[in-house]
Amino acid sequence: MIRTGNPLLLWFRQDLRLADNAALAAAQASGRPIIPIYIFDDNGKEGWAPGAASRWWLHHSLESLEQSLRTRGSRLILARGDPAETVLSLMRDTGAGAVYWNRRYEPAGAKLDAQIECALRKEGCEVQVFSSALLFEPDVIANKQGRPYQVFTPFWRHCLAQPIPREVRTKPGPLAMPKSWPDSVRREELRLLPPIRWDRGFYGAWAPGEAGAMRRLRGFLSRSIADYASARDSPAAETVSKLSPHLHFGEIGPRQVWAAVQRLSRHDGVFPPHRGAAKFLAELGWREFAYHLLHHFPHTPDAPLRSEYVRFPWAEDRGGEKLRAWQRGRTGYPLVDAGMRQLWATGWMHNRVRMVAASFLVKHLRLPWQQGAMWFWDTLVDADLANNTLGWQWSAGCGADAAPYFRIFAPVSQGENCDPQGTYVRTWIPELGQLPKTFIHRPWEAPPHVLVAAGVELGKTYPRPIVDHGVARKEALESFRRFQNSRLHREK
Predict the structure, then answer these.
(1) Active site residue 283
(2) Rounded distance, CA 280 to CA 266, Å?
(3) Which of 108, 272, 319, 465 is a good FRET partner for 257, with 20 to 30 A between their CA atoms?
């Protein structure tokens, strides 16, 4: 028998906000006392455990959520351990008659949620699951054959033909409190912050939490969105939103972003949105597409969507020297190295540079995309299983809507196009700071006297290229040609 007069557990996961939170709105509407909880899974039952940079963000995001709840007369109960065991234990200890949460889409987490829901219902506990992370549930978007989309453009065209969900309004004011609170661990006991302070650069770059997300959105809309379509590929300029970590942790939801852009467009008298706004909203579409693919193809975080690529002949990297050079920003190609150093220092990398760096790993070095995906997972504050998987499989040419394997980003020309003055490179590779722009993306071509004047000694102060672009490109194309021929031979 379902208990109706007891408290309600409001289970936060990747929805660390109070506004536009469907589970919170429903909890308020129920009239029950609300016990907000967060369970840190230190047993890996939910699949991909957060990487080091994500753990840093989570620590501060939980702090922000706790402060927000305190202003509403409530508190956040923290627990660690097996999520299934912990939520059942909390339900029994508090006498909760219901557990509300917002849906997740990562394969292991979604499977675990279904098991937890079944266990709770067997105990006579009401369970309500809501949608707050996406504009569209992956199950409701399908092509004319009823199958999942694998190409972005028709997927997004189909989405735009649907009604865009509105923000869910939560009530202001105090939350109904229980008569007593269960025990909570301290945030420090979750051990989310690094013992070695490699995170110093994060503090100046980010403000985790719902308030920080809203400031980031307002700043982007007021300063950058008009030029977004034309300037978004410039890594040296502050023209992108940097909302990705806030969206991943659910400190802001896509419905809120969508509504804010639409309100701005109406205010400016440009509706439908102008090109910059439309391009930015399409980036929300790519996020939706990533989750659509992850939901329908749950094997893709580890294996290629296009199954024939399981046999792709990756190169050997004895001792892991090439991988380490890439990770440390020591490839000898300034745009790639600047991106990898920005990643290490701030937990984030500009999207155009991500594509160039990923292409370099899988095509110049011909190392498996999974190795790059794992490094990004550990070092990005916006590490998101859906987006990370889509991006790496796109770069490797083995996923949905992928760049074909023979499309190989040239790091020099990419640098000259998106960072023509070398501002981005100089920021993250100060040892090249005195090189003229003519050679900033190709220091190995600078005459000796130019290198001396700039204080650059190749092989000592800055590495020589670990591969030759022309040779690497030729070897990558030859490798792909042999792979295609062997695949066709097997299929005969």
Answers:
(1) yes
(2) 16
(3) 108
Backbone angles phi, psi at 79, to 5 degrees: -140, 160
419-477 pLDDT, tens per residue? Answer: 999 999 999 999 999 999 999 999 999 999 999 999 999 999 999 999 999 999 999 99
Residue 276 is inside which H or E element, if any? Answer: helix 275-296
**Alpha-helical runs (H) found in 72-103:** 83-94
pLDDT tens per residue across span 225-241: 988 999 999 999 989 99
Is 348 a residue whose pLDDT tops 70?
yes
> What's the CA angle centered on 465, arms 463 and 467, to 5 degrees?
145
Catalytic position from the list 101, 206, 348, 369: 369
Q: Confirm whether 181 is a catalytic residue.
A: no
Q: Which of 11, 57, 101, 286 is catalytic?
A: 286
At 350, is the secondary structure helix, strand, or coil? coil
Q: Which of the following is catalytic: 137, 167, 283, 308?
A: 283
Q: Does pLDDT of 270 surpass 60?
A: no
Exactly one of 314, 417, 444, 475 is catalytic; which is it? 314
**Cβ–Cβ under 8 Å, residues 40 and 79:** yes
CA distances from 35 to 53, 99, 236, 326 (A): 28, 9, 45, 46
Active-site annotation holds for 369: yes
- Whether 444 is catalytic is no
The active-site residue out of 392, 394, 416, 428 is 392
pLDDT at 174 exceeding the cut of 90: yes
The token pair at 279 is 């391009």
**Mean pLDDT value across residues 262-269:** 72
Is the model's pLDDT at 196 over the cut of 80? Answer: yes
Q: Are 427 and 236 in contact (CB under 8 A)?
A: yes
Q: Report residue 406's pLDDT band, with 50, 70 and 90 as the boundaries.
A: confident
Would the pLDDT of 129 be above 90?
yes
Distance in angstroms (rounded) separating the CA atoms of residues 443 and 447? 9
Neighbours of 233 (CB within 10 A): 18
CB atoms within 10 A of CB 164: 14
- The confidence score (pLDDT) of residue 1 equals 32
- Give me the catalytic one of 167, 344, 351, 475: 351
Please state, as a whole number, how many other Cβ atoms lie within 10 Å of the Cβ of residue 303.
14
- Give yes or no for a contact between 345 and 428, defined as CB atoms under 8 angstroms apart: yes
DSSP 391-455: HHHHHHT-STTPPPTT----HHHHHHHH-TT-HHHHHH-GGGTTS-TTTTT-GGGS-HHHHHHHT
CA dist 219 and 77 (Å) reads 32
Residue 491 is among the residues annotated as catalytic for this protein: no
Q: Is 316 a catalytic residue?
A: no
